[in-house]
Amino acid sequence: MNKLMVVSGNANPKLAKEICACLRVKLGDVLVGRFSEGEIRIKVNEDVRGKDVFVIQPTCPPVNDNLMELLILLDALRRASAKRITAVIPYYGYARQDRKDQPRVPITAKLVANLLDNAGADRVLTMDLHAGQIQGFFDIPVDHLFAINVFVEYIERMKFDNLVVVSPDVGGIKMARAYAKRLSAALAIVDKRRISPEKAEVMNILGEVKDRDALIVDDLAATGGSLVEAASAIKKAGAKNIYAAISHGVLSGNANENIAQSVIKELFITDTIPFKPAESNKKIKVLSVAGLLAEAIRRIRKEESVSSLFDGITQ
């Protein structure tokens, strides 16, 4: 492992340090700053020639700044003769723009994939993509991890007797089914109509939620509007306590307030995106994925199977 090197931008240095602690390596010495006019300034302060370098940088808000930092880091490492460069992107921004669902709109998820490839990434390690087909946007290997093991391990300790796993929309059925199978729980689906990119209207609930504890599962929550609407509909249908497990807690805009005032009893998110808990919201619990990412990095470095990390997870 002496040829392994882990570096980080400014997106989530805390997660990068925790990954390094799990791997028992020190975080690489890289300057990531700004020039006076705002341009990103990067300098790698130690030798990377011939090394296997992993760049920890989720493209979370501010998305464009963090994405640009990642691209420049990749370019700097490539020009410094790193042997292999892996972009570790726990949260892949622009993933919701993965298709042309309206006339004259871009497929930005593909554009970002091209940028990463051209900047110098030899492979990508990411987690819970908004759409699995984004893996096919890359011409380099992509290792796609899932946060389900982290969530399931925590939820099993809560010892629910009569749990139902709820998908907040039809597109999340596969993920919800995987959770239901692992937790030996029932399955329900919220049928909703999307009014705008941030707002949806619940139409029906498919499945039995009455007198059950409900767990809503999804890959990300931005403003929390859809999540709160789904929780409210489930509560009206007779559910007892409502929980939610969301892989990426973007939580932009009024999300904290929306969740604090909702019927959701507790929201579980991962630390793929830095989260500063609001004083007014004690409902949010952050679970770490540092151990999972560190194990994936170790296996990639040693040329071992990464898929065995999620054997038995069918999505």
UniProtKB/TrEMBL annotation:
Stretches assigned to the Ribose-phosphate pyrophosphokinase N-terminal domain: 4-120
PANTHER family registered for this protein in UniProt: RIBOSE-PHOSPHATE DIPHOSPHOKINASE FAMILY MEMBER (PTHR10210), RIBOSE-PHOSPHATE PYROPHOSPHOKINASE 1, CHLOROPLASTIC (PTHR10210:SF41)
Amino-acid positions noted as binding D-ribose 5-phosphate in the UniProt annotation, renumbered to this chain: R194, D218
Cofactor dependence: Mg(2+)
Compartment annotation: Cytoplasm
Superkingdom as given in the UniProt entry: Bacteria
Subunit-structure text: Homohexamer.
Biological or metabolic pathway of the protein: Metabolic intermediate biosynthesis; 5-phospho-alpha-D-ribose 1-diphosphate biosynthesis; 5-phospho-alpha-D-ribose 1-diphosphate from D-ribose 5-phosphate (route I): step 1/1
Manner of cofactor binding, per the entry note: Binds 2 Mg(2+) ions per subunit.
Any Gene Ontology CC annotation: cytoplasm
Residues the record lists as binding Mg(2+): H130, D169
Main location (coarse class): cytoplasm
Matches recorded under InterPro entries: PRib_PP_synth_CS, Pribosyltran_N, PRTase-like, PRTase_dom, Rib-P_diPkinase, Rib-P_diPkinase_bac
Binding positions for ATP per the UniProt entry: R96, Q97
Full protein name: Ribose-phosphate pyrophosphokinase
UniProt family annotation: Belongs to the ribose-phosphate pyrophosphokinase family. Class I subfamily.
Lineage: Bacteria, Pseudomonadati, Candidatus Omnitrophota, Candidatus Ghiorseimicrobium
Functional note: Involved in the biosynthesis of the central metabolite phospho-alpha-D-ribosyl-1-pyrophosphate (PRPP) via the transfer of pyrophosphoryl group from ATP to 1-hydroxyl of ribose-5-phosphate (Rib-5-P).
Pfam families in UniProt: Pribosyl_synth, Pribosyltran_N
